[in-house]
Amino acid sequence: MSKVVLYCRPGFEKECAAEITEKATQYEVFGFARVKDNSGYVVFECYQHEDADKLVRHLPFRELIFARQMFVAGELLRDLPPEDRISPVVGMLTGVIEGAGDLRVEVPDTNESKELMKFCRKFTVPLRAALRQQRVLLLKENAHRPIVHVFFIAPGCCYTGYSYSNNNSPFFMGIPRLKFPSDAPSRSTLKLEEAFHVFIPYDEWDERLSSGMHAVDLGACPGGWTYQLVKRSMMVHAVDNGPMAPSLMDTGQVTHHRADGFKFEPTRNNIDWLVCDMVEKPARVTHLMARWLVNGWCREAIFNLKLPMKKRYEEVSQNLAGLAQELKDNGINAQIQAKQLYHDREEITVHVRRIWGAVPGRRDER
Ligand SMILES: C[S@@+](CC[C@H](N)C(=O)[O-])C[C@H]1O[C@@H](n2cnc3c(N)ncnc32)[C@H](O)[C@@H]1O
């Protein structure tokens, strides 16, 4: 199998393609990306047959910003015969993968694929049985074994292959299913909730998202992100000139500052979380986040970078490289991860965690 299939947000295929091409080169994997606008996926074709496996095994999935999922795939299976769509899929996988732990029959995240999804659900049961018979799949689900993917891009037309469970998205179609909490003041609450799911390992939630922590939310109104912090029993400073939802203010956990998020400074250095959803130029937001981290004003930060411009991949790469450099220059050791989340639109979400670092001296806004 020589292809790597990557899922992405429809409209971001070029960014996904540019990213996989650049990252593959770092692993000395060469090939080219096939892109169809608004399709919701990219196919990276490796020149060397075995390189697709190398990439999916070794390129850390968490480092990819625009890909929601990646798997090794063979040739596109076209015109699957309606009377037996199973045999060609099983044939493609037999001898390539054995003892996989789970099967996901998926589609691109487009409106056109919604009908196909109904078929996929029905198809999964008999396909799973056939794959078990051939030992492609284990008899019992196993979270530590590879995942078999069957990705229908049109009726009777699919890619199939596998991903590694320690280097993929654990979610079906790469999308965490979150329920909108009816008492949240805005739908963007789901962005921060998804960010927690994607960036913070579950076994660290009790320690890193725990009650009594202090948080600052820049650009907080009406309070969707603050809601997530309040729900986790944190004390929140919400900074915005707009109005906060009264239900949040009633909790007694929120202090509302009608101030400019670029000028606001915490009065104490005990802020665990800085979150920021201000609609501003990415460079300005990135610099502000660096300032908080360098000054030791917060331990972790989650922020959005809005991408209304044309050269989105370049913009993201430049800002993240600039942030990494600024932290390094100031002796801050930090983990930086960025992802275009399912609930992100023309934007990405970035998470930074300060591991250690001296706080040399105050850094001011330039
Ligand atoms: C996308 S909304 C935030 C939505 C919020 N995260 C939620 O979940 O409800 C952006 C907010 O940033 C605020 N904002 C923009 N520039 C700001 C600034 N310089 N200082 C403070 N707030 C700002 C706007 O007033 C607006 O309420």
TrEMBL record:
Domain Ribosomal RNA large subunit methyltransferase M THUMP-like: 84-164
Gene Ontology CC: cytoplasm
Ribosomal RNA methyltransferase FtsJ domain sequence ranges: 186-280
Pfam families reported for this sequence: FtsJ (PF01728), RlmM_FDX (PF18125), RLMM_N (PF21239)
Localization of this protein: Cytoplasm
Domain RlmM ferredoxin-like: 1-71
EC numbers for this chain: 2.1.1.186
Catalytic activity: cytidine(2498) in 23S rRNA + S-adenosyl-L-methionine = 2'-O-methylcytidine(2498) in 23S rRNA + S-adenosyl-L-homocysteine + H(+)
Gene Ontology molecular-function annotations: S-adenosylmethionine-dependent methyltransferase activity
Name recorded for this polypeptide: Ribosomal RNA large subunit methyltransferase M
Gene source species: Enterobacillus tribolii
